[in-house]
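Structure in, sequence out. Go:
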């Protein structure tokens, strides 16, 4: 019999399809796991309701848990409460920075911090940066340029 701890460990190996250095657990996307005699139900909240990777994440969760011998795996999408960048674990924030993606500040729902005046470059740490495009490759990222090291980088938006 598989334990809840083993399930969480396995889920922590399922990486975010858009940011492969962090897991769905670290991103706060996987919210809850329930076990019963028939199988496992995983509740997840995508970063936004129209996330194009939703099906891929669901399939990877099912595949990972079936690999543990769990026959019935249900993945529920929960949209309320919505996902927030505050749910990103500290370990993931460090990995995002190493990946070259500036992590979002914790905002606690304070909309004043959604577009902070200073954004530190994930490469050199300089705050002499500027937005070059508020829309990055996904809705949750913006493109910045660092005047210190002359590197472009992406910033994960505070949502």
């Amino acid at each position: 019999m598989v334990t809840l701890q083993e399930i969480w460990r396995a889920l922590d190996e399922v990486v975010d399809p858009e940011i492969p250095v962090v897991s769905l657990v670290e991103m706060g996307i996987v919210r809850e796991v329930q076990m019963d005699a028939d199988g496992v139900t995983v509740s997840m909240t995508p970063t936004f309701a129209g996330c194009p990777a939703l099906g891929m994440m669901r399939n990877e969760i099912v595949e990972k848990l079936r690999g543990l011998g769990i026959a019935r795996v249900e993945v529920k999408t929960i949209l309320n409460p919505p996902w927030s960048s505050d749910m990103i674990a500290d370990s993931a924030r460090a990995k995002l920075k190493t990946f070259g993606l500036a992590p979002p500040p914790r905002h606690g729902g304070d909309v004043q911090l959604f577009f902070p005046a200073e954004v530190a470059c994930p490469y050199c740490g300089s705050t002499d940066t500027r937005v070059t495009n508020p829309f990055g490759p996904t809705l949750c990222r913006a493109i910045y340029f660092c005047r210190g090291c002359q590197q472009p980088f992406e910033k994960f938006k505070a949502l």
